[in-house]
Amino acid sequence: MTCDDAGEPVLVGPVVCAALRMEARAVRRGLARTPVVVVGYRARHADRLPGSCAALVTVGFGGALDERLRPGDVLVADEIRGGPGTEPVPCSAPRLLAGELIRDGLGVQVGPIVTTDHVVRGAERAFWAAQGARAADMESAAVAARARSRPVAAVRVIVDGPGHPLWHPGVVGRGLAARRVLARTGPALERWGVLLVRGADDPNEGSGARTP
Known about the structure:
Layout: E1 2-3, E2 9-10, E3 14-18, H1 21-28, E4 36-38, E5 55-64, E6 74-81, E7 89-90, H2 94-103, E8 108-115, H3 123-130, E9 135-137, H4 140-147, E10 152-160, H5 171-182, H6 186-198
Parallel strand pairs: 3-4, 3-5, 5-10, 6-8, 8-9
Antiparallel strand pairs: 1-2, 5-9, 6-7, 6-10
Helix pairs in contact: 2-6
């Protein structure tokens, strides 16, 4: 870590952002050197994020919007949508990141994610799915807004979706399984971060990620 002209720390690698402490604890298990910042539910504490770093990565649980994503799958966003009236934010090297996660044996898909201010369920899932979004969360768009010109990425482990309601007895087991998956994402995030900082020759090729 170095400092800028004002004496503020400049992080030369990516910073991982998690909404909940339990998500942060899980992803930290696989991280050797990447800092994790807890930004809170709905990214209420996004001001905790550093002013300068190589990239911002939101990581945590998410809800599927269609049946192609099942609980325990990982969605790597290729763009982050903030809802009606906002411009989508493209993610940096999503297929490179997906490929690194696949190398570690995770089930990964790539597609758009939408950020809302509430849990999406019922007919609203179908609405967002019809717009092409694959999963929903409540933080990624707020973090992307803080990133400004910096690269941004989003990784969500699916907990609920069509046929798997969030408020259902089975959610406890799905949540524990998703936490185990989340704990396996760290090494891939760090490899992706190294490649991003170095500058991959063609970051979107050779990943093997599925984009249904």
